[in-house]
Amino acid sequence: MNRELLLILLTGTLVVVAVVAAIPWFRTSRPLHGSPIAATGDALAAGIFLGAGLIHMLPDAAQGYAAHGTGYPWPFVICGATILGLALLEHLALGSGRSAVPALAAAIALAAHSFLAGAALGATSREAAILVLFLALIAHKGAASFSLAQVLTESPLSRRRALTMQNMFIAALPLGVVLGAVAIRQEQAWPLAKPTILALGAGTFLHFGLQRHRARAPTSGRARWVMPWFGFALMALIAVVD
């Protein structure tokens, strides 16, 4: 299948999942995180994100910078700054009381995650890696969209503003995919665009993977501790095959 068509189909699927998950805003239903199947999928995604960031994106970013004679380790600086920046956004999201700031910070943090993850997906050239990253993204996209919708609707934000923030989160991923795809097409004109996006994506995936792995409670079951290793090994195997 044509790579661009594959990206369109996968991105459209992710958008639909995010929209459907956000629909029951005012219903009192159990969050998706409470499902054992969803929790296991989330654990698998953690390993995939860690493997994608460390084994695929960061080395490719470093190779891209080195190919253009850049001696300074910019990919690692960008990756580390991304991890710290996303951690700061999430820290700002941990507020108390009825202030709207935590909800807004949560929306910005999740949108940043989504945008950078989409950019990394769009900048990935190997179809096998694209499919695995898609599986990792879809494993948590619905849960993230559902959770954000709950946070926004329970905040002092007006319904209209809450909907705007939710739509910003949903639109962030396809916009990121477009940016990543353009970076590949303009690789000769913008030689450092793709490795920079990959370094940003690596930081995003490492932050999210570590975050989700730490969230696994000791009582959450053996499978949820094994699945991150399985996801990480899968990304390592793809590197061998490719």
What does the model show?
The protein is mainly α and 242 residues long. It has one domain (3-15, 40-241). Helix content is 79%, strand content 0%. It contains eight helices and no strands. The chain starts with a helix and ends with a helix. The model is unreliable at 28-33 (pLDDT under 50).
Q: Kindly provide the radius of gyration, computed on alpha-carbon positions and rounded to a whole number of angstroms.
A: 18 Å
Largest sheet: none
Uncertain runs are 28-33
* Count of beta strands: 0
The rounded distance between the terminal residues' Cα atoms is: 17 Å
Roughly what is the average pLDDT, rounded to an integer? Answer: 80
DSSP strand (E) fraction? under 5%
SSE sequence, one letter per element: HHHHHHHH
Class of secondary structure makeup: mainly alpha
